Amino acid sequence: MNGRRVITGIDIGTTKICAIIAEITPENSAEIIGIGLSPSHGLRKGIVVDIDKTSKAIREACEKAERMAGVKINSAYVGIAGSHISSLNSHGVVAVTGEEKEIKESDIQRVMEAAKIIPLSAEEEIIHVLAREFIVDGCTGIKDPLGMSGVRLEVETHIVTGSSTSIQNLVKSVLRAGLDVDDIVLEPLASSESVLTEDEKELGIALVDMGGGTTDIIVFQDGSIAYTSVLPVGGNHVSNDIAVGLRTPIREAEKIKIESGCAIAGLVDENEYIDVVSASGKKKEKVPRKILCEVIEPRMQEIFNLVKKELDQVGPRDLTPAGIVLTGGASLLAGADELASRVIALPVRLGEPEHITGLTGVIDNPVYIQKGDNVPKAIFSTAVGLVEYGIKYHKREVKSNQGNELVSDFFSKLKNWLSDFF
Fold first, then answer.
1. Please, what is the Cα angle at 47 between 46 and 53, to 5 degrees?
2. What is the pLDDT of residues 157-207, one digit of tens each?
3. What is the CATH number of domain 86-161?
4. pLDDT tens digits for 75-89?
């Protein structure tokens, strides 16, 4: 790589695989130098159901990104989602060691380990242990207790777990594509790195990442993660409804949705018509655009009602005064933000990566995502966020001179096991 510092994020979604290669500048910011997209055929609702097809799609996306960037990648940060994901808040407490009672890195590690003692089934595995706040001798709201004096150290954490089988199949798919896994990252957590501001997180905000097979939710309060959830419904369900309602092939339904869809039928002119290909693919007929939108609206309303139910579990609406940020491919549907605001009764804005350079300039083939001259960047939120996550946590690792616990020897053992067969 000629001394170039690069980092890679791979968004393995139900609809598409997106690989992004970014070069780390001397200022520790990221400039995107390569993007690769490939259709995803081996996943269903965010879960790998065909390892061979998934690994082939990953390899294809990575090769496109490598050609564009002019570098060879060996490892990547990989996003994970799916209905198997669950989360809970946990508490840990330890006594501070040492004669001077000064909190050291080892004390922080011990209290985080204490918080990880939660009931887990044999099929579950911890993906993230995220510190919400530290408490030193009863003093709350501490973000970093390192160097402080105290005798009792506590931590409030948010723990994300997932199915061991699903995690292993995802890792196998990446390893078969010829790449090592730097870390497995919850996709809405990654997206939050690229589309939310620190001020929004401090104020209280919910991010809703609408993908093809899942809708991912993450809620921030006081700058920390308070809640995460993954709903097994997304943009593909809208496309399926269109295919059934208008009797057209799925591929045509997806195209019609992107080009002419609207989440609120009332916003569409009665006199607008669209061409719809028949199920046989042999003829077209003119259909009022409003009929298309009347098929779309109930499904989008259902998705936002499910999001509303999830947010109701977090607490009153005044805990998220900054409202909701919609991102992901399905959020690009016209009127989606307005419908979400009506259903959930919170202000809504569309989110896309802004603070990372080079995104638009290196998109080689935005065929199915481009509207006019605009390239909707929201479909890259997760992949860009994975790069941001990698830079952010890589710096923490260098500072503490410790490896990331989340990428344990599980990955190396799995790789060695697979090498016996491939």
1. 105
2. 999 999 999 999 999 999 999 999 999 999 999 999 999 999 999 999 999
3. 3.30.1490.110
4. 999 999 988 999 999
Choose among 285, 393, 300: nearest CA to 341. Answer: 300
Whether the CB-CB separation of 204 and 89 falls below 8 Å is answered with no
- The amino acid at 264: I
Q: How many other CB atoms are there within 10 angstroms of residue 42's CB atom?
A: 21
Amino acid at 81: A
Q: Are the C-beta atoms of residues 361 and 337 closer than 8 Å to each other?
A: no
Tell me if 166 sits within 8 A of 79, measured CB to CB: no
DSSP for residue 166: H
Query: Six-digit token pair at 141?
Result: 């709201």
Q: Where are the domains of the chain?
A: 86-161
Measured CA to CA in angstroms, residue 376 lies from 154, 212, 333 at distances of 43, 15, 11
Both tokens of 67, joined, read 């050609």
The DSSP bridge pattern shows strands 180-186 and 75-80 to be parallel
Q: Under a CB-based contact definition with an 8 Å cutoff, are residues 344 and 322 in contact?
A: no
Continuous H helices in 41-186: 51-69, 105-115, 164-176
Angle at 137 between CA 135 and CA 138, to 5 degrees: 60
Q: What share of the chain is helix, strand, coil (3-state, %, to 5)?
A: 40, 30, 30
